[in-house]
C-alpha cells in the first residue's frame, strides 16, 4: 500500500487502488495524524469531511464500504429509472423549469399572459430555471418560495401543478400541505375624505374622472381604464363590462346601474370610443406609480389604486347590498375572496325581533295622515279646506278600517 504524508497537516491518504475500490465511489478514506491518527472520510461530491471516530483501519474500511454501498444502490436504481423514462419520453430526463414556464406562457393570452410574463421574470426563479425537473428536491422549492414574495409562492405552485398535470413529474415534489402558507398583505380601503383630497388636487381632467369612476364602480384600474362609451347604456343608466383577467371563463359581465353623480362624470368624457384615450395606453404599473405619487404628495399612506375595490366592497356591505350582486359587480367568483375584500365593513345585523319592529314602525309611518298646509286668506279657502279635510278624514277611516 502506498502512503503519502503531508508535511504540515500530517494527513495520510490511502490509495484506493490498493484497497480494491472503484474510483467512482462517492467516499474516500484518509487518516489525519494531526487529529491523533483518526480515520476520516471525504465526500467526493460535496468535499465535506467527516471523522469516523476510530483509529482502527479494519473498522474504518468497513464504515467506508458501508457508506459507498449506501450511496451506490440509489444511483443504480436511478440509472435504471432514467433508462425507462427516456424510452417513454426522450425529454423527461433533461426537461427544465424554464421549459415548463415557456409551455405555460404558450397557453395564455391577453391579460393573463401579461401577468404570467411578469411573474416568471421573478429573480427568485433564477436558481431553478435550468434545473431538470427530476433532479429538483422539495428543499430547493421550499427555500425558493421562502426567499421570494407572495407572487413567487403562488406561481411556483402553479408551475409545479402544471408539470404534474402534463405527467412531466412522476409525483409531487412538495406535498400539497407542505407548501409554505400564502399570506397576502392586508389590503386597505381608501376613505371618502382621502379620495376627495386626491380629486380636489388633481388638475388633469381625464385622470380625475378616472379616479372618480374607480370610486363609484369599484372596478380594477385596468377594467376602468379600458371602458368604452359603448359600454354605457344611457336608457337604463347602466355600465356593463367584463373583467380582463376573467375573459374566457364564462363569467357574466358586471352590469352596474349608476345615478346622477356618475352620469355627470360620464358626460365629461368622450361619447364615442374609449372613455380614457390616454390612460388606457399606460401600463398598469405606471398608472399605479402616478397614483402613489399623488398620495405621497398629500401625505396619504398605504393606499393604492386597488384600495378603491376594497372601499367599494366595504361600502356595499355597510349598505346591506346583496352579496351576490356585490360579487358580480366586483367580478369575484368566490365568496371567500369577496368577504376578504369587505372584511372591514361596519354592517350591523339586527335581531329578528328588532327587524320586525322596524318593519312595523315603517308601515305605521307610511299610513299616517299627512297634515296639509292651507292658506285661509286665499279666495275660496273655506270651500277648498273643507274638501281637503273631508278627503283626509276619509283616508283616516279607510286606514283604521283596514
Task: Give an account of the 3D structure.
There is one protein chain. With 402 residues, the chain is an alpha+beta fold. It folds into four domains: 3-88, no CATH class; 97-178; 192-341, Orthogonal Bundle (hpI Integrase, Chain A); 356-401. It is built from 15 helices and eight strands. It has a five-stranded antiparallel sheet, with helices on one face. It has a three-stranded antiparallel sheet with strand order 6-7-8. α4 packs antiparallel against α5 and α7 packs across α11. Mean pLDDT is 78; it is low at 1-23, 345-349, 381-385 and 396-402.
Q: Would you summarize the structure shown here?
A:
The protein is α+β, with helices and mostly antiparallel strands. Helix content is about 50%, strand content about 10%.
Mean pLDDT value: 78
Rg over C-alpha atoms, rounded to the nearest angstrom: 37 Å
Number of helices: 15
Cα(first) to Cα(last) distance is 119 Å
Write out key terms for the chains shown.
402 residues; alpha+beta; hpI Integrase, Chain A; 5-stranded antiparallel beta sheet; 3-stranded antiparallel beta sheet; 48% helix; disordered N terminus; disordered C terminus
What's the structural blueprint in terms of helices and strands?
Blueprint: E1 3-5, E2 11-14, E3 27-32, E4 38-43, E5 49-51, H1 57-88, H2 97-106, H3 110-119, H4 138-147, H5 150-165, H6 192-201, H7 205-217, H8 221-225, E6 232-233, E7 238-241, E8 254-257, H9 260-267, H10 284-297, H11 307-318, H12 323-330, H13 335-341, H14 352-367, H15 381-401
Antiparallel strand pairs: 1-2, 2-3, 3-4, 4-5, 6-7, 7-8
Helix pairs in contact: 4-5, 7-11
Amino acid at each position: 500500500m502506498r502512503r503519502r504524508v503531508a508535511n504540515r497537516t500530517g494527513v495520510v491518504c490511502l490509495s484506493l487502488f490498493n484497497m480494491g475500490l472503484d474510483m467512482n465511489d462517492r467516499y474516500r478514506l484518509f487518516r489525519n495524524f494531526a487529529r491523533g491518527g483518526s480515520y476520516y472520510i471525504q465526500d467526493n461530491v460535496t468535499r465535506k469531511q467527516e471523522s469516523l471516530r476510530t483509529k482502527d483501519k479494519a473498522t474504518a474500511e468497513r464504515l467506508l464500504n458501508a457508506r459507498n454501498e449506501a450511496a451506490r444502490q440509489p444511483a443504480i436504481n436511478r440509472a435504471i429509472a432514467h433508462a425507462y423514462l427516456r424510452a417513454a419520453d426522450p425529454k423527461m430526463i433533461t426537461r427544465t423549469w424554464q421549459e415548463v414556464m415557456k409551455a405555460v406562457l404558450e397557453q395564455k393570452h391577453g391579460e393573463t399572459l401579461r401577468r404570467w410574463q411578469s411573474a416568471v421574470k421573478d429573480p427568485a426563479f433564477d436558481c431553478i430555471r435550468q434545473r431538470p425537473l427530476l433532479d429538483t428536491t422539495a428543499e430547493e422549492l421550499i427555500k425558493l418560495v421562502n426567499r421570494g414574495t407572495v407572487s413567487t409562492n403562488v406561481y411556483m405552485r402553479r408551475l409545479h401543478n402544471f408539470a404534474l398535470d402534463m405527467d412531466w413529474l412522476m409525483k409531487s415534489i412538495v406535498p400539497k400541505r407542505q407548501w409554505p402558507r400564502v399570506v397576502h398583505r392586508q389590503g386597505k380601503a381608501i376613505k371618502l375624505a382621502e379620495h376627495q383630497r386626491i380629486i380636489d388636487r388633481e388638475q388633469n381632467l381625464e385622470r380625475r374622472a378616472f379616479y372618480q369612476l374607480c370610486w363609484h364602480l369599484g372596478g380594477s384600474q385596468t377594467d376602468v381604464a379600458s371602458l368604452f362609451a359603448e359600454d354605457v347604456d344611457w336608457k337604463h343608466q347602466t355600465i356593463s363590462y367584463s373583467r380582463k383577467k376573467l375573459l374566457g371563463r364564462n363569467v357574466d359581465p358586471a352590469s352596474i346601474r349608476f345615478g346622477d353623480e356618475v352620469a355627470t362624470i360620464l358626460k365629461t368624457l368622450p361619447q364615442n370610443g374609449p372613455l380614457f384615450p390616454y390612460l388606457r395606453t399606460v401600463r398598469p404599473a405606471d398608472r399605479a406609480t402616478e397614483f402613489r405619487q399623488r398620495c405621497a404628495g398629500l401625505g396619504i399612506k398605504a393606499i393604492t389604486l386597488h384600495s378603491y375595490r376594497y372601499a367599494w366592497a366595504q361600502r356595499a356591505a355597510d349598505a346591506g347590498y346583496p352579496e351576490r350582486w356585490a360579487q358580480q359587480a366586483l367580478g369575484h367568483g368566490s365568496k371567500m375572496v369577496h368577504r376578504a375584500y369587505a372584511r372591514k365593513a361596519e354592517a350591523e345585523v339586527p335581531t329578528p325581533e328588532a327587524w320586525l319592529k322596524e318593519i312595523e314602525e315603517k308601515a305605521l309611518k307610511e299610513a299616517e295622515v299627512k297634515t296639509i298646509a292651507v292658506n285661509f286668506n286665499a279666495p275660496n279657502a273655506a270651500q277648498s279646506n273643507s274638501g281637503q279635510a273631508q278627503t283626509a278624514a276619509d283616508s283616516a277611516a279607510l286606514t283604521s278600517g283596514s
